[in-house]
Amino acid sequence: MQLEDFMRYQDLVCQAAQLPRFDWNGRRSLKNNRNLAKRMIFWFGAVNLVYHNFGCIMYAYYADRSTKDPMDYIAELASVGAMLGFTIVGTLNLWKLWTLKPNIEKLIDDFEELFQITKRRPYRSHHYYESYTRFIRNLLIFFTLTIAYYNALPIILMTRELLTESQKLSYRLQSSTWYPWQFQGSIPGFLVAVVCQGFSCQVNLCVLIFSQFLVSFFGIQLEIHFDGLARQLEAIDARHPNAKDQMKSLIRYQKEIFNMADRVNEIFNFTFFISLSISVTCTSSLAFSVTMFDLGPALKHTFGLLIFLIYNFCMCRNGTHLIFAFIVAPTTMQYEDFMHYVEIACRWALMPRFEWRGRQSPRVKETWLKKIVFIAAAINLSFYNISFAAYAYLLDPKTTDPLIYAGKISEALSMLGFVVLGTLNMFALLILRPQIEDVLAELQDLFNQKLQDNYAMGYRLKKSTRLMRNCTILFAFCNAYYNATPLITMAYEMLADSKRICYETQNETWYPWKINDSILSFCASYISQAFSSIINLGTIVTDQLLVHVCTIQLEIHFDGLSDKLENLDAKDIRSKEKLINLISYHQRLIDLAGSINGIFNFTFLISLTTSTIAVCSMAYNLTMFDMMRALKYTVGLLLFMIYTFSLCHNGTLLSLASDKVLPAAFYNNWYEGDLAYRKMLLILMMRATKPYIWRTYKLAPVSITTYMATLKFSYQMFTCVRSLK
For residue 571, which phi and psi values (nearest 5 degrees)? Predict the structure, then answer.
């Protein structure tokens, strides 16, 4: 990773306003040559931005108070004042950026030199880079939508008035501004004014965005260095003979960081002052304007209010993050942090959480009530395997249309695939529970013994937590929609005064009682299916997240092993001892991965086979039923595809992580070691020749390639079924 990767979105903003990008000595990408046309566009927008300050003042001066209601007059002045605040902030920021451009480029160049220190620990940069880019990308999208809406509003209003054949056109501009030509009643004058304000707005907001992104860039760089300084101070061993030299270098490092922070503060002093002082007035003016105008202008002022609030919030947020990076001690990562969403999924599935030796949190005792509820839910879920099979068997093809019959059979098969998958996963988790807990204990031992790079763990933890959280939310939303569909349908029929209420449950299936005409039997069926869907999806999510946790742990260990092999120095006296430990570490990882594969063999097999048939059935259902049922099966289709993709994606991640061991062992100075060292390294390289791949009972690999093959086969089955008449 390079420092200029952090400047990616700043360069996009410069291109949008034709601003000259910031170049420094260490920048690797080629310098962009700005031709005459680009310079003319930039200067045209800059001149219009400067003029806009004068235009807003003149408009407020010439506003006739006698012909308007006092409140309308105040609202108009508030609107003009808010726009004047925008243009003043943009103009002054443009002036400061232009005059301080050499100082900023020199500062970035110094950060480039300092950034080389972080390459020793790449996860620190990756950890901050992902959160930083995600934050400013969302800001850029919001500001882009705001610019588009602001500049399109006059054209939209004029087009609407022309289409409705209004007797009088309003000729309303983006903002109230005085111009030396007549634009009211003149189409050419109106268009010229719209274009001038469009260029002014483009340069204005791009300058604001660029200033904000620059502050964020310097803030995140200082955070990286303060955090790195804290980690290195924490890792110093006072008993080591080089401890004094290490402390002296860290003191120099701290002094350099403080000097850089002071230079950043000095450059952006004026930006902070003008932003905070003007925003107070503009925020109150915009809030007042929102309450006084109709929908179109009120929405425009709402966007302006949000821009000011977000702009100042981001400035202050960067300062707060920098303070926390300086004063807050680094936190120690725990193995149980990776198991947070697995425990939530266990509670969802009404299962007891996984306990293993060495777990720090106290053991949770299961009450008799919880055990009885879980047993009842498990029996209820198991019943639906028989229920859907019986429903498909009892369907009479002679009494229904062949296409409808095929649709009902397909519906029963798709739901049967869901309950079969959930039931088998539930029994697999219960039967293999001791083995799973032994594996989790082994992973915790490895986690505590081998992992010292907190950034690698923090990076992986943040990434996996975000993925598991999104997955849990998606499955919970789908479960809620699935169970709410019958209630929504019944409420709609009651509100529509329907003569006959349809007692439709979540899915058509067989029950030993009739549900068509009895509210009691309908409620019993509905509760039974809801209870079944909750434990079914909860079990599937638990199984999926458990596989993901094991994968992310193995990925961390293979990554750590690769880093240690790459940094191994053959000239070191202890290199043989270190290499022996790394060989045993690699063998331990291979054995542990084999144990995990043995535990989840059945899960991989049943998931791939069931999903192939279920995806085909649900895709067929989409073409056969009405919108509500089609939407329900769309949700089911997405769940199956996401679940199978997650398992195969985990297998691919493990394969890629284990594939790093061989090049890491080769690309070090092994040629400087003796013959015994080279033989030991050769043994490790022979073991790492092929990446470790999860398999379903040593048959098909669990990878993205297999996932694409299952989708292809499902599509072939779907087209075959659709072609039958």
Answer: -80, -15
271 strand-pairing partners: none
DSSP-assigned beta bridge partners for residue 701: 695
Confidence band of 547 (pLDDT split at 50, 70, 90): very high
Which residues, 6 or more positions from 619, have their beta carbon under 8 angstroms from its beta carbon? Answer: 637, 714, 715, 718
Radius of gyration of the chain, Cα coordinates, nearest whole angstrom: 33
Three-class SS state of 611: helix
Q: Is 398 exposed, middle or buried (0-12, 13-18, 19+ CB in 10 A)?
A: exposed
pLDDT tens digits, one per residue of 335-348: 788 888 888 888 88
SS3 call for 701: strand
> Which sequence spans correspond to the domains of the chain?
3-26+33-330, 337-476+528-723
Residues paired with 536 in a beta bridge: none
**pLDDT of 330 strictly over 70:** no
pLDDT-derived band at 500, boundaries 50, 70, 90: low
Structure tokens at 587: 């063998």
pTM of the complete model: 0.70
Name residue 695's beta-bridge partners.
Answer: 701
Neighbours of 188 (CB within 10 A): 9
Query: Tokens 């961390």 — which residue?
Result: 556
d(CA 322, CA 680) in angstroms, rounded, equals 47
- Sort 389 into a burial class: Cβ within 10 Å, 0-12 / 13-18 / 19+: middle
Planar angle of CA 679, 681, 686, nearest 5 degrees: 95
Q: Give CA–CA dist 187/135, Å, rounded.
A: 41
Identify residue 226 by its one-letter amino acid code. Answer: F
* Torsion angles phi and psi, residue 695, rounded to 5: -135, 160
Query: Do the beta carbons of residue 217 and residue 6 sit within 8 Å?
Result: yes
